[in-house]
Amino acid sequence: xxxxxxxxxxxxxxxxxxxxxxxxxxxxxxxxxxxxxxxxxxxxxxxxxxxxxxxxxxxxxxxxxxxxxxxxxxxxxxxxxxxxxxxxxxxxxxxxxxxxxxxxxxxxxxxxxxxxxxxxxxxxxxxxxxxxxxxxxxxxxxxxxxxxxxxxxxxxxxxxxxxxxxxxxxxxxxxxxxxxxxxxxxxxxxxxxxxxxxxxxxxxxxxxxxxxxxxxxxxxxxxxxxxxxxxxxxxxxxxxxxxxxxxxxxxxxxxxxxxxxxxxxxxxxxxxxxxxxxxxxxxxxxxxxxxxxxxxxxxxxxxxxxxxxxxxxxxxxx
Amino acid sequence: xxxxxxxxxxxxxxxxxxxxxxxxxxxxxxxxxxxxxxxxxxxxxxxxxxxxxxxxxxxxxxxxxxxxxxxxxxxxxxxxxxxxxxxxxxxxxxxxxxxxxxxxxxxxxxxxxxxxxxxxxxxxxxxxxxxxxxxxxxxxxxxxxxxxxxxxxxxxxxxxxxxxxxxxxxxxxxxxxxxxxxxxxxxxxxxxxxxxxxxxxxxxxxxxxxxxxxxxxxxxxxxxxxxxxxxxxxxxxxxxxxxxxxxxxxxxxxxxxxxxxxxxxxxxxxxxxxxxxxxxxxxxxxxxxxxxxxxxxxxxxxxxxxxxxxxxxxx
Lengths: 318, 315
Fold this sequence. Notes:
The complex is a heterodimer of chains A (318) and B (315).
Chain A: E1 2-13, E2 20-31, E3 35-39, H1 46-54, E4 61-70, E5 73-74, H2 80-86, E6 91-94, H3 98-101, H4 108-119, H5 124-137, H6 143-146, H7 156-168, E7 174-178, H8 186-201, E8 206-211, H9 214-220, E9 223-228, E10 231-237, H10 238-243, H11 248-257, H12 293-297, E11 303-306, E12 309-311
Parallel strand pairs in A: 3-8, 3-9, 6-7, 7-8
Antiparallel strand pairs in A: 1-2, 1-4, 4-5, 9-10, 10-12, 11-12
Chain B: E1 6-17, E2 20-31, E3 35-39, H1 46-53, E4 61-66, E5 69-70, H2 76-83, E6 86-89, H3 93-96, H4 103-111, H5 120-134, H6 150-162, E7 168-172, H7 180-197, E8 200-205, H8 208-214, E9 217-222, E10 225-231, H9 232-237, H10 242-250, H11 270-273, H12 289-293, E11 299-302, E12 305-307
Parallel strand pairs in B: 3-8, 3-9, 6-7, 7-8
Antiparallel strand pairs in B: 1-2, 1-4, 4-5, 9-10, 10-12, 11-12
Helix pairs in contact in B: 4-6, 5-6
């Protein structure tokens, strides 16, 4: 069943000269218990899409059209007060840089229990118990003593555990992790992903992982949505995306990840389109090897190619 | 080994910071037309070692020899002529250009290092030649760094590096600020340039995909020490040290395979830096008593494959 639905979401960043078009009509459905990976390069709009859901957008961002439907309500029409009750309780986000997401002047125990006190009740002793319990669940060593620790005493991996604990404190229905492993060492990255998967295994929370690293997404997710320049170009199960991708961009991206000893590295020619320009055709047209006439003129619609596989490419429209 | 071919030799170099030994008795040599890779996680001392070679940091002990001349003790003034022979390409091109200068002005500053480039016409000709080589249009010369994309800017940085005709270029994470789809363009370009100019590269990276395509030899570093040294082929086909194996495993090089083994546990701590024995021992699941007590030397366990591990033969 659909837990959250994004419909035709368009978002601009207002600039003194001209608007920067970030999202060009995003349609995405997140089902209950989904493990969805959102893949794309920097500037493709993956973070903005997820920030729109929780209404944590930069001041200059302006939603031009679209809806975010969660439990039959449009989140874009909610007031800030109403959103505060949803964030952390219904929908949680794990941010990219764990050390800057924590407040440096408060001990971690206080920061975690604050979330409990905000959403679940005023009993401070109960809040502390729950804090210790959640720290134990994220495999924090000596949880009852480390509640007094300050963020600067923790390593990057440990800070990320605190953030995960905070995100899961009120057992949300949707957990969004925005590049949770960038900035961490490679050997720690796997530990953090394994931990998130482990902790959410017992719950029925839906999980969205935003990453530019296909490797990590394939490990953690059962479904992948590929974004390019503010468009979702392909959605499919992990296996389909890896082996039977149809969109030329997805194919290219997967090829970039497969390196063979003694062979040269694959790449996609050109670079991403400038975001200030209005794109009238397919956003990938200028870099695409199989582009046709129609690709310049008309935007491809997303079509369902088979069960659990959608693609937005003129080559497959007919 | 053919000594004449070595551009640079680093012998038993040690660099200490307060409380931390960043580089501990590391030796390496780089020949022309060869790419040597330094791999390891943040804090293992790979960038420090790169900076030591460029004399951006002073070493505490050991030797650095460039074409037979020891350069580690030279005062800055006498080191200047060597600086154009050894160049560095930095991680983030946006911060390695002056934001108020046009690309042309930034490159011009470097031209003063090259004795042959004194005349203005010469300089412009040379810049145009190098721009052509890296595939940049000359329009961007008047642009400021913030007007260019990451890929363009890294190419411009490469022009600046090449204009003084170096023999050795230290590449410090050359692609980590670039997108996956454009990363291959820069890597292929670097390989083409090596083929044309026969320069040596020291590539510092934690991206094993880049290492796999580019490097001829690889040094794996952990907390300031070399734990494994061999050819790229041998490392990727048959890694011995548990740390190298964990790195290869973590990089998810084979994205179709979901099964990953947990070779390492825990994280790097201050105490593991001060261990007498193997510094990886507290995190290694194969560690035995001897690993904690005694330090293993870098040992050749098969031809051209050096490993620092007591249990390397047991796997």
